[in-house]
User: What shape does this take?
Amino acid sequence: QKEVEQDPGPLSVPEGAIVSLNCTYSNSAFQYFMWYRQYSRKGPELLMYTYSSGNKEDGRFTAQVDKSSKYISLFIRDSQPSDSATYLCAMSGSGGYQKVTFGTGTKLQVIP
Amino acid sequence: GAGVSQSPSNKVTEKGKDVELRCDPISGHTALYWYRQRLGQGLEFLIYFQGNSAPDKSGLPSDRFSAERTGESVSTLTIQRTQQEDSAVYLCASSIPGNIQYFGAGTRLSVL
Assistant: This one.
């Protein structure tokens, strides 16, 4: 079993839809939870990160962490064609140097 | 520099040849990471450098892979006697230790 599981998609939605992207994990030591966006032929760029459980909102994006269920989500409201990309979840422990473990990524296509 | 710079952006080589990939981190970032991203897969950690500390090489898949970094500047990842399974995108990231990783655009390696 992988430490981080993420549905690879592809996920195709109409413009304006609410998108839900999810990851599950098995390592209870994970404390930092991140979402990266990766456009084709580009490196990943950090979208959001949260520490421990809870919600975080930034514009059209909301990140949720449920540590009891070992489940994290990224919601995108009013999705736009420019949101079309691969979204990778990533996690790490806390305290000093910690390796970051990435999910496989979910490919999202927003259709105009 | 403005961001993490990687070169070359694309590399095509023949099986058995050696290749060298280069990463220029963001100025002031003492931490540097190398990852491998195979098609349709997540990021696979390879190696981590932090200042003058001994690097964490635990992710290097075989002794054909090696990496060097001089101080807090450029890093090179060398793959000797390349195999077809080495074909992937090799991503470099840099950060202030324990902080957000910023990625380069990657080097797309194709081994024929």
Q: What stands out?
A: The interface with chain B takes residues 4, 6, 8, 34, 36, 41-46, 49, 88, 90, 96-105 of chain A (CB under 8 Å). The two ends of chain A are 37 Å apart (CA to CA). The mean pLDDT of chain A is 92. Chain A is about 0% helix and 55% strand.
